[in-house]
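Internal tracking record. Fields below are filled automatically when a chain is submitted to the structure queue. Please do not edit lines marked as system-generated. If the sequence contains nonstandard residues, flag them in the REMARKS field before resubmitting.
Queue: standard
Priority: normal
Entity type: single polypeptide chain
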Amino acid sequence: MSQTKPLQRILLLWSIVAFVASSGYGLFSLFSSAWQQPKRSGQNEAQLINKQLQEQEKGYELVLQREPENQVALKGLVDTRLEMKNVKGAIAPLEKLVELNPDREDYKTLLSKLKQEIEKK
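SYSTEM-GENERATED OUTPUT FOLLOWS
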């Protein structure tokens, strides 16, 4: 029996050391991976946003191929193209929206502003 107490102490000490070491390693790897993550530059972020906008544009175009009068897709395409600074590309779907919604003054106003902007260039 007297030999089991020193053995228990050794195992207890070993367990504590192993626990502290594994916890320390986990915390170290957590913080070191956070430090090592590269920071996105403004250019990379802009490229990512542009790529997402292009994908949205393609999605709206696919919907409009199946449903040419889908007003949600038309509005989404207009908004996406305006975000992409593609004023000329936004005019055709906006004209379709005006045709489908002749009572919407906001569409008419936006269309006239875009046409004036193109004329200035």
